[in-house]
Amino acid sequence: MAQSKPVISPWGGAVAGATGAVIANALVYPLDIVKTRLQVQVRPSGDKSDSDDDAVHYTSTWHAISRIVADDGLQGLYAGMNGALVGVASTNFAYFYWYTVARALYAKSAGPAAGSPSTAIELSLGAAAGALAQLFTIPVAVITTRQQTAAKADRKGLFATAQEVIEGPDGVSGLWRGLKASLVLVVNPAITYGAYERLKDVFFHGKTKLKPWEAFFLGAMSKALATIVTQPLIVAKVGLQSKPPPARKGKPFSSFVEVMRFIIQHEGLRGLFKGIGPQILKGLLVQGILMMTKEKYGHWKKKHPSGIRLNANFLVLLSRAQGAIAASSATSLAKNAALIKPLVKS
Length: 346
Description:
This is Peroxisomal carrier. The chain is mainly α. The protein has helices at about 10-25, 30-40, 60-70, 80-110, 120-150, 160-165, 180-185, 190-205, 210-240, 255-265, 275-305, 310-325, 335-345.
């Protein structure tokens, strides 16, 4: 008799995904704030009217970490963390709820004869769920970005920052700044998955079962490539959600294209890749955490083969935690849809 697959309700899946994402984000949060600070800064120019004399210009990831600690103490590396974790929890809760609903609707419409959805369909369902999640949760991302990039003296609480955004030139709609860029960024998982399969064929041609270090290598390489391709859009999104630089004289950007033009004008094309070091390092660390956890789980599963329901739920949580933290936004949410299918079957 075929073994029945465990059924995870939309609420159960949402709670599992949100919990895993919060834990993973908390572990690497200092890298998140450093890459955000690097992405939002503008290289100083000779024109003093275009620069802020009080602003610190970070030259590298380590310089950013050391200056933040020197100016704000260790707690400076966790500025805005409460809001960030609320955002991560709400985004992932919304994503996994809508993904589970969308997958159930697809299964109902396709019928039992259709079998499991293909990878393309899984990615499409994940992208749709990610887009819906962004509509509901991007205000928290805007507030968190403001908190992460504000000076210590100007930093406010979650609700005070939200009020500041609403009282700005955009009004309530300011809470949804960067929405278009976030929606476009759902292509990141498709790039990651495509690069993974291509690199697997290049480095491990004909090999069906990969060793942990091989899977880690491919995952890290594919995520790095996807990050490089989408980094300009990630930087533009951060620029939209943060306060405008001094050269804008308080005028906010109207689109991510305008942000890109401004960055190229003041910093050249290299400016579109600000903060890519910690962005990639963050993904590598999470991938390592995931692989080590999966290895531990593999040994546990051999000793407890009857824990079917717990096994599936645990694996789903792990796969969701990986995607949630790897890009720290909607950029990697849809990738989890492709990951869940083979993991639950194992």
